MFS transporter
Amino acid sequence: MSAASTEGTVAPATADLTAEQRQRDNVAIVAIPVAMLGLMIAIVAPLLVSLALRLTTLDATSSAANLSLVLGIGAFVAFVVNPIAGRLSDRTTSRLGQRKPWIFAGAVISYVGIVVIAFAPGVWAVVLGWSISQLGFNLALAPLVAMLPDQVSQGARGKVASLISLAQNGSAVIGTYFVQLFAIGLTQSLLPSLIGLVVLVLAVLPIKDVRRAEPPTDRLSIVSIFASFVFDPRKHPDLGWAWVARFCLITTQFTATSYLTYFVIDELGYSVAEAATKVFQGTLLNALGILLTTFFFGWLSDRTGRRKPFVLASAVVAALGLGIMATAGTLTVLLVAELVLGMGMGAFLAVDLALVSDVLPDDGQAGKDLGVINIAQALPQSLVPVVAPAVVAGVGYPGLFLGGAAFGVLGGLAVLMVRGVR
Protein backbone atom coordinates (compact mmCIF):
# COMPACT_ATOMS: atom_id res chain seq x y z
CA MET A 1 0.00 0.00 0.00
CA SER A 2 1.09 3.55 -0.56
CA ALA A 3 2.69 5.44 2.30
CA ALA A 4 0.26 5.72 5.19
CA SER A 5 0.44 6.72 8.78
CA THR A 6 -0.22 4.33 11.61
CA GLU A 7 -3.75 5.70 11.73
CA GLY A 8 -4.69 3.41 8.89
CA THR A 9 -3.02 0.56 7.06
CA VAL A 10 -4.24 -2.44 5.11
CA ALA A 11 -5.47 -5.11 7.51
CA PRO A 12 -3.07 -8.00 8.03
CA ALA A 13 -3.89 -11.40 6.63
CA THR A 14 -2.46 -13.34 9.57
CA ALA A 15 -4.40 -15.08 12.31
CA ASP A 16 -2.48 -13.22 15.06
CA LEU A 17 -4.05 -9.79 15.10
CA THR A 18 -3.02 -6.78 17.10
CA ALA A 19 -5.44 -5.19 19.52
CA GLU A 20 -5.71 -2.23 17.14
CA GLN A 21 -6.68 -4.49 14.25
CA ARG A 22 -9.25 -6.34 16.34
CA GLN A 23 -10.77 -2.97 17.20
CA ARG A 24 -10.82 -2.06 13.51
CA ASP A 25 -12.61 -5.31 12.71
CA ASN A 26 -15.17 -4.67 15.46
CA VAL A 27 -15.94 -1.18 14.18
CA ALA A 28 -15.93 -2.19 10.51
CA ILE A 29 -18.33 -5.11 10.93
CA VAL A 30 -21.02 -2.62 11.97
CA ALA A 31 -20.04 0.69 10.39
CA ILE A 32 -19.26 -0.33 6.81
CA PRO A 33 -22.42 -2.43 6.24
CA VAL A 34 -24.64 0.24 7.84
CA ALA A 35 -23.01 2.92 5.69
CA MET A 36 -23.59 0.78 2.61
CA LEU A 37 -27.22 0.29 3.65
CA GLY A 38 -27.74 4.05 3.84
CA LEU A 39 -26.05 4.72 0.50
CA MET A 40 -28.00 2.00 -1.25
CA ILE A 41 -31.34 3.15 0.19
CA ALA A 42 -30.61 6.59 -1.22
CA ILE A 43 -30.13 5.28 -4.75
CA VAL A 44 -32.33 2.15 -4.80
CA ALA A 45 -35.57 3.94 -3.91
CA PRO A 46 -35.57 5.99 -7.13
CA LEU A 47 -34.00 3.18 -9.15
CA LEU A 48 -36.68 0.61 -8.39
CA VAL A 49 -39.80 2.76 -8.17
CA SER A 50 -39.61 6.55 -8.13
CA LEU A 51 -37.89 7.00 -11.49
CA ALA A 52 -40.37 4.79 -13.32
CA LEU A 53 -43.36 6.45 -11.67
CA ARG A 54 -41.98 9.96 -12.30
CA LEU A 55 -41.43 9.19 -15.97
CA THR A 56 -44.92 7.70 -16.21
CA THR A 57 -46.32 10.93 -14.78
CA LEU A 58 -44.39 13.03 -17.30
CA ASP A 59 -45.06 10.85 -20.38
CA ALA A 60 -47.01 7.65 -19.84
CA THR A 61 -46.84 6.47 -23.47
CA SER A 62 -43.04 6.55 -23.70
CA SER A 63 -42.13 5.86 -20.08
CA ALA A 64 -40.37 2.53 -20.73
CA ALA A 65 -38.19 3.97 -23.49
CA ASN A 66 -37.46 7.04 -21.38
CA LEU A 67 -36.47 4.83 -18.43
CA SER A 68 -33.95 3.07 -20.68
CA LEU A 69 -32.54 6.44 -21.69
CA VAL A 70 -32.27 7.68 -18.10
CA LEU A 71 -30.75 4.47 -16.72
CA GLY A 72 -28.36 4.09 -19.63
CA ILE A 73 -26.93 7.59 -19.35
CA GLY A 74 -26.77 7.38 -15.57
CA ALA A 75 -24.94 4.07 -15.74
CA PHE A 76 -22.43 5.56 -18.18
CA VAL A 77 -21.75 8.27 -15.61
CA ALA A 78 -21.23 5.55 -12.99
CA PHE A 79 -18.90 3.70 -15.35
CA VAL A 80 -16.71 6.79 -15.71
CA VAL A 81 -16.82 8.13 -12.16
CA ASN A 82 -16.37 5.01 -10.03
CA PRO A 83 -12.79 4.03 -10.91
CA ILE A 84 -11.66 7.66 -11.00
CA ALA A 85 -13.14 8.21 -7.54
CA GLY A 86 -11.29 5.15 -6.28
CA ARG A 87 -8.01 6.40 -7.73
CA LEU A 88 -8.48 9.89 -6.31
CA SER A 89 -9.21 8.49 -2.86
CA ASP A 90 -6.00 6.44 -3.04
CA ARG A 91 -4.10 9.70 -3.58
CA THR A 92 -5.93 11.86 -1.02
CA THR A 93 -3.89 13.36 1.84
CA SER A 94 -6.73 15.00 3.76
CA ARG A 95 -6.63 15.07 7.57
CA LEU A 96 -10.02 13.33 7.45
CA GLY A 97 -8.39 10.40 5.66
CA GLN A 98 -8.32 9.00 2.16
CA ARG A 99 -11.91 7.82 1.89
CA LYS A 100 -14.16 9.98 4.09
CA PRO A 101 -13.91 13.29 2.16
CA TRP A 102 -15.14 11.62 -1.01
CA ILE A 103 -17.93 9.76 0.78
CA PHE A 104 -19.26 12.95 2.37
CA ALA A 105 -18.99 14.98 -0.85
CA GLY A 106 -20.65 12.18 -2.81
CA ALA A 107 -23.61 12.08 -0.41
CA VAL A 108 -24.30 15.79 -0.90
CA ILE A 109 -23.96 15.67 -4.70
CA SER A 110 -26.16 12.57 -4.94
CA TYR A 111 -29.00 14.27 -3.07
CA VAL A 112 -28.79 17.34 -5.31
CA GLY A 113 -29.61 15.00 -8.20
CA ILE A 114 -32.57 13.50 -6.32
CA VAL A 115 -33.96 16.99 -5.78
CA VAL A 116 -33.57 17.78 -9.49
CA ILE A 117 -35.56 14.62 -10.34
CA ALA A 118 -38.32 15.51 -7.88
CA PHE A 119 -38.86 18.91 -9.52
CA ALA A 120 -38.12 17.81 -13.09
CA PRO A 121 -40.43 19.50 -15.63
CA GLY A 122 -39.53 17.03 -18.36
CA VAL A 123 -37.60 13.91 -19.27
CA TRP A 124 -34.40 15.86 -20.00
CA ALA A 125 -34.37 17.11 -16.40
CA VAL A 126 -34.80 13.56 -15.09
CA VAL A 127 -31.78 12.55 -17.20
CA LEU A 128 -29.79 15.43 -15.70
CA GLY A 129 -30.89 14.65 -12.14
CA TRP A 130 -30.14 10.94 -12.38
CA SER A 131 -26.73 11.68 -13.89
CA ILE A 132 -25.91 14.01 -10.98
CA SER A 133 -27.11 11.36 -8.52
CA GLN A 134 -24.93 8.72 -10.16
CA LEU A 135 -21.97 11.10 -10.04
CA GLY A 136 -22.39 11.60 -6.28
CA PHE A 137 -23.32 7.99 -5.58
CA ASN A 138 -20.16 6.66 -7.22
CA LEU A 139 -17.95 9.33 -5.64
CA ALA A 140 -19.09 7.81 -2.34
CA LEU A 141 -19.34 4.14 -3.36
CA ALA A 142 -15.78 3.54 -4.58
CA PRO A 143 -14.09 4.84 -1.39
CA LEU A 144 -16.65 3.06 0.80
CA VAL A 145 -15.96 -0.32 -0.84
CA ALA A 146 -12.21 0.36 -0.55
CA MET A 147 -12.65 0.54 3.21
CA LEU A 148 -13.10 -3.26 3.29
CA PRO A 149 -9.46 -4.16 2.48
CA ASP A 150 -8.31 -0.99 4.28
CA GLN A 151 -9.99 -1.82 7.57
CA VAL A 152 -10.72 -5.55 7.79
CA SER A 153 -8.31 -8.44 8.42
CA GLN A 154 -8.38 -11.21 5.85
CA GLY A 155 -9.92 -13.76 8.18
CA ALA A 156 -12.95 -11.53 8.82
CA ARG A 157 -13.58 -10.34 5.27
CA GLY A 158 -16.16 -12.98 4.42
CA LYS A 159 -18.22 -12.00 7.46
CA VAL A 160 -18.03 -8.27 6.75
CA ALA A 161 -18.58 -8.80 3.02
CA SER A 162 -21.69 -10.86 3.76
CA LEU A 163 -23.10 -8.03 5.86
CA ILE A 164 -22.28 -5.55 3.09
CA SER A 165 -24.13 -7.79 0.65
CA LEU A 166 -27.04 -8.02 3.07
CA ALA A 167 -27.09 -4.23 3.30
CA GLN A 168 -26.90 -3.77 -0.47
CA ASN A 169 -29.75 -6.13 -1.14
CA GLY A 170 -31.83 -5.40 1.95
CA SER A 171 -31.82 -1.74 0.98
CA ALA A 172 -34.27 -2.58 -1.79
CA VAL A 173 -36.86 -3.62 0.80
CA ILE A 174 -36.34 -0.60 3.02
CA GLY A 175 -36.19 1.81 0.10
CA THR A 176 -39.35 0.52 -1.56
CA TYR A 177 -41.06 0.36 1.84
CA PHE A 178 -40.40 4.07 2.35
CA VAL A 179 -41.55 4.85 -1.19
CA GLN A 180 -44.87 3.03 -0.90
CA LEU A 181 -45.64 4.80 2.41
CA PHE A 182 -46.17 8.07 0.57
CA ALA A 183 -48.48 9.16 -2.21
CA ILE A 184 -46.83 9.97 -5.53
CA GLY A 185 -45.24 13.39 -5.14
CA LEU A 186 -42.36 15.26 -3.53
CA THR A 187 -42.27 13.39 -0.22
CA GLN A 188 -42.12 10.05 -2.01
CA SER A 189 -39.25 11.29 -4.18
CA LEU A 190 -37.23 13.12 -1.52
CA LEU A 191 -37.54 11.51 1.92
CA PRO A 192 -36.26 7.92 1.33
CA SER A 193 -33.01 9.14 -0.22
CA LEU A 194 -32.49 11.76 2.48
CA ILE A 195 -32.89 9.17 5.23
CA GLY A 196 -30.43 6.87 3.51
CA LEU A 197 -27.75 9.53 3.12
CA VAL A 198 -28.05 10.62 6.76
CA VAL A 199 -27.51 6.98 7.80
CA LEU A 200 -24.45 6.81 5.52
CA VAL A 201 -22.78 9.86 7.05
CA LEU A 202 -23.48 8.84 10.65
CA ALA A 203 -22.14 5.32 10.07
CA VAL A 204 -18.89 6.47 8.45
CA LEU A 205 -18.00 8.98 11.18
CA PRO A 206 -16.60 6.49 13.76
CA ILE A 207 -14.35 4.69 11.23
CA LYS A 208 -10.64 5.44 11.73
CA ASP A 209 -9.85 6.21 8.13
CA VAL A 210 -6.60 5.48 6.30
CA ARG A 211 -4.36 8.54 6.13
CA ARG A 212 -1.46 9.06 3.76
CA ALA A 213 1.66 10.35 5.46
CA GLU A 214 3.06 11.70 2.18
CA PRO A 215 1.55 12.86 -1.11
CA PRO A 216 1.87 10.47 -4.06
CA THR A 217 5.15 10.73 -5.94
CA ASP A 218 3.61 10.43 -9.41
CA ARG A 219 1.71 13.29 -11.00
CA LEU A 220 -1.95 12.99 -11.82
CA SER A 221 -2.22 13.22 -15.61
CA ILE A 222 -4.61 12.39 -18.42
CA VAL A 223 -2.76 9.12 -18.93
CA SER A 224 -3.07 8.16 -15.27
CA ILE A 225 -6.77 9.09 -15.28
CA PHE A 226 -7.35 6.73 -18.20
CA ALA A 227 -5.30 4.12 -16.36
CA SER A 228 -8.00 4.20 -13.69
CA PHE A 229 -10.20 2.13 -16.00
CA VAL A 230 -7.86 -0.80 -16.58
CA PHE A 231 -5.61 -3.37 -15.03
CA ASP A 232 -3.47 -5.91 -16.85
CA PRO A 233 -5.32 -9.27 -16.77
CA ARG A 234 -2.12 -11.01 -17.90
CA LYS A 235 -0.35 -9.71 -14.80
CA HIS A 236 -3.36 -10.15 -12.51
CA PRO A 237 -5.47 -12.95 -14.08
CA ASP A 238 -7.38 -13.68 -10.89
CA LEU A 239 -8.63 -10.11 -10.77
CA GLY A 240 -9.62 -10.43 -14.44
CA TRP A 241 -11.70 -13.54 -13.86
CA ALA A 242 -13.26 -11.99 -10.76
CA TRP A 243 -14.23 -9.02 -12.96
CA VAL A 244 -15.92 -11.32 -15.49
CA ALA A 245 -17.80 -13.19 -12.76
CA ARG A 246 -19.12 -10.01 -11.23
CA PHE A 247 -20.11 -8.56 -14.61
CA CYS A 248 -22.15 -11.66 -15.42
CA LEU A 249 -23.91 -11.88 -12.07
CA ILE A 250 -24.71 -8.16 -11.92
CA THR A 251 -26.21 -8.55 -15.39
CA THR A 252 -28.38 -11.29 -13.91
CA GLN A 253 -29.42 -9.09 -11.01
CA PHE A 254 -30.09 -5.96 -13.05
CA THR A 255 -32.09 -7.90 -15.64
CA ALA A 256 -34.43 -8.88 -12.82
CA THR A 257 -34.76 -5.44 -11.23
CA SER A 258 -34.56 -2.79 -13.95
CA TYR A 259 -37.89 -3.62 -15.58
CA LEU A 260 -39.69 -5.11 -12.58
CA THR A 261 -42.13 -2.21 -12.26
CA TYR A 262 -43.11 -2.47 -15.93
CA PHE A 263 -43.34 -6.27 -15.72
CA VAL A 264 -45.78 -5.96 -12.84
CA ILE A 265 -47.88 -3.48 -14.85
CA ASP A 266 -47.63 -4.97 -18.35
CA GLU A 267 -47.58 -8.71 -17.63
CA LEU A 268 -49.33 -9.13 -14.29
CA GLY A 269 -51.97 -6.48 -14.98
CA TYR A 270 -51.57 -4.22 -11.95
CA SER A 271 -52.27 -0.50 -12.15
CA VAL A 272 -49.65 2.22 -11.80
CA ALA A 273 -51.04 2.99 -8.35
CA GLU A 274 -50.67 -0.65 -7.26
CA ALA A 275 -47.23 -1.18 -8.77
CA ALA A 276 -45.16 0.30 -5.94
CA THR A 277 -46.73 -2.04 -3.36
CA LYS A 278 -46.28 -5.13 -5.57
CA VAL A 279 -42.63 -4.24 -6.24
CA PHE A 280 -42.17 -3.82 -2.48
CA GLN A 281 -43.61 -7.29 -1.90
CA GLY A 282 -41.20 -8.72 -4.46
CA THR A 283 -38.18 -7.02 -2.95
CA LEU A 284 -39.32 -8.16 0.52
CA LEU A 285 -39.21 -11.81 -0.60
CA ASN A 286 -35.90 -11.12 -2.30
CA ALA A 287 -34.53 -9.80 0.99
CA LEU A 288 -35.85 -12.85 2.83
CA GLY A 289 -33.85 -15.03 0.45
CA ILE A 290 -30.79 -12.92 1.15
CA LEU A 291 -31.28 -13.31 4.89
CA LEU A 292 -31.45 -17.07 4.52
CA THR A 293 -28.04 -17.34 2.84
CA THR A 294 -25.84 -14.26 3.03
CA PHE A 295 -24.40 -14.21 6.51
CA PHE A 296 -24.23 -18.00 6.78
CA PHE A 297 -22.22 -18.45 3.59
CA GLY A 298 -19.97 -15.49 4.36
CA TRP A 299 -19.22 -17.01 7.77
CA LEU A 300 -18.79 -20.50 6.29
CA SER A 301 -16.41 -19.13 3.66
CA ASP A 302 -14.22 -17.62 6.39
CA ARG A 303 -14.50 -20.79 8.47
CA THR A 304 -13.45 -23.15 5.67
CA GLY A 305 -11.01 -20.78 3.97
CA ARG A 306 -12.80 -21.42 0.67
CA ARG A 307 -14.52 -18.95 -1.66
CA LYS A 308 -15.01 -20.54 -5.10
CA PRO A 309 -17.47 -23.37 -4.28
CA PHE A 310 -19.84 -20.92 -2.59
CA VAL A 311 -19.64 -18.41 -5.44
CA LEU A 312 -20.37 -21.11 -8.03
CA ALA A 313 -23.33 -22.53 -6.09
CA SER A 314 -24.84 -19.12 -5.46
CA ALA A 315 -24.51 -18.15 -9.14
CA VAL A 316 -26.45 -21.25 -10.17
CA VAL A 317 -29.20 -20.50 -7.63
CA ALA A 318 -29.48 -16.91 -8.87
CA ALA A 319 -29.80 -18.17 -12.43
CA LEU A 320 -32.57 -20.53 -11.29
CA GLY A 321 -34.42 -17.56 -9.80
CA LEU A 322 -34.39 -15.79 -13.16
CA GLY A 323 -35.58 -18.99 -14.82
CA ILE A 324 -38.59 -19.11 -12.48
CA MET A 325 -39.25 -15.41 -13.10
CA ALA A 326 -39.40 -16.12 -16.83
CA THR A 327 -42.43 -18.37 -16.19
CA ALA A 328 -44.18 -15.97 -13.79
CA GLY A 329 -47.77 -15.39 -14.81
CA THR A 330 -48.99 -14.54 -11.33
CA LEU A 331 -47.71 -12.51 -8.41
CA THR A 332 -47.21 -15.71 -6.39
CA VAL A 333 -44.77 -17.17 -8.92
CA LEU A 334 -42.97 -13.83 -9.12
CA LEU A 335 -42.56 -13.82 -5.33
CA VAL A 336 -41.11 -17.34 -5.39
CA ALA A 337 -38.69 -16.26 -8.10
CA GLU A 338 -37.63 -13.25 -6.04
CA LEU A 339 -37.01 -15.49 -3.03
CA VAL A 340 -34.77 -17.85 -5.00
CA LEU A 341 -32.97 -14.99 -6.73
CA GLY A 342 -32.30 -13.37 -3.37
CA MET A 343 -30.84 -16.59 -1.97
CA GLY A 344 -28.42 -16.77 -4.88
CA MET A 345 -27.45 -13.12 -5.26
CA GLY A 346 -27.05 -12.48 -1.55
CA ALA A 347 -24.62 -15.35 -1.11
CA PHE A 348 -22.77 -14.50 -4.33
CA LEU A 349 -22.16 -10.87 -3.52
CA ALA A 350 -21.05 -11.71 0.02
CA VAL A 351 -18.42 -14.29 -0.91
CA ASP A 352 -17.46 -12.57 -4.18
CA LEU A 353 -16.51 -9.33 -2.43
CA ALA A 354 -14.31 -11.27 -0.01
CA LEU A 355 -12.76 -13.14 -2.94
CA VAL A 356 -12.00 -9.90 -4.78
CA SER A 357 -10.42 -8.40 -1.64
CA ASP A 358 -8.24 -11.51 -1.29
CA VAL A 359 -6.85 -11.28 -4.85
CA LEU A 360 -6.22 -7.52 -4.94
CA PRO A 361 -2.62 -6.68 -5.89
CA ASP A 362 -0.66 -5.25 -2.96
CA ASP A 363 0.21 -2.08 -4.89
CA GLY A 364 -1.30 0.66 -2.73
CA GLN A 365 -4.15 1.15 -5.19
CA ALA A 366 -7.02 -0.71 -3.55
CA GLY A 367 -9.44 2.11 -4.35
CA LYS A 368 -8.44 2.18 -8.01
CA ASP A 369 -8.45 -1.63 -8.40
CA LEU A 370 -11.82 -1.96 -6.69
CA GLY A 371 -13.04 0.88 -8.90
CA VAL A 372 -12.17 -1.21 -11.95
CA ILE A 373 -14.01 -4.14 -10.37
CA ASN A 374 -16.97 -1.83 -9.79
CA ILE A 375 -17.07 -1.14 -13.54
CA ALA A 376 -18.33 -4.71 -13.73
CA GLN A 377 -21.18 -3.54 -11.50
CA ALA A 378 -21.88 -0.33 -13.44
CA LEU A 379 -21.50 -1.59 -17.01
CA PRO A 380 -24.54 -3.93 -16.98
CA GLN A 381 -26.61 -0.95 -15.86
CA SER A 382 -25.66 0.74 -19.13
CA LEU A 383 -26.03 -2.28 -21.38
CA VAL A 384 -29.21 -3.88 -20.01
CA PRO A 385 -31.42 -0.79 -20.55
CA VAL A 386 -30.10 -0.45 -24.10
CA VAL A 387 -30.68 -4.09 -25.01
CA ALA A 388 -33.80 -4.83 -22.93
CA PRO A 389 -36.43 -2.98 -25.02
CA ALA A 390 -35.43 -4.88 -28.16
CA VAL A 391 -35.34 -8.18 -26.27
CA VAL A 392 -38.77 -7.59 -24.73
CA ALA A 393 -40.18 -6.54 -28.11
CA GLY A 394 -38.75 -9.64 -29.77
CA VAL A 395 -39.17 -12.46 -27.23
CA GLY A 396 -41.03 -10.82 -24.36
CA TYR A 397 -40.15 -10.67 -20.69
CA PRO A 398 -39.48 -14.45 -20.52
CA GLY A 399 -36.70 -14.04 -23.08
CA LEU A 400 -35.23 -11.14 -21.11
CA PHE A 401 -35.19 -13.10 -17.86
CA LEU A 402 -33.80 -16.29 -19.43
CA GLY A 403 -31.00 -14.23 -20.91
CA GLY A 404 -30.22 -12.95 -17.44
CA ALA A 405 -30.19 -16.53 -16.15
CA ALA A 406 -27.64 -17.53 -18.80
CA PHE A 407 -25.31 -14.77 -17.61
CA GLY A 408 -25.61 -16.13 -14.08
CA VAL A 409 -24.33 -19.54 -15.18
CA LEU A 410 -21.44 -17.94 -17.07
CA GLY A 411 -20.50 -15.94 -13.98
CA GLY A 412 -20.32 -19.08 -11.88
CA LEU A 413 -18.05 -20.75 -14.43
CA ALA A 414 -15.77 -17.70 -14.61
CA VAL A 415 -14.98 -17.84 -10.89
CA LEU A 416 -13.63 -21.37 -11.31
CA MET A 417 -10.74 -19.83 -13.25
CA VAL A 418 -9.52 -17.87 -10.21
CA ARG A 419 -6.38 -19.62 -8.98
CA GLY A 420 -5.29 -17.49 -6.01
CA VAL A 421 -8.07 -18.65 -3.68
CA ARG A 422 -9.66 -22.02 -3.00
Notes: The radius of gyration is 20 Å. The chain is about 75% helix and 0% strand. The domain at 19-207+229-415 is CATH 1.20.1250.20 (Growth Hormone; Chain: A;).
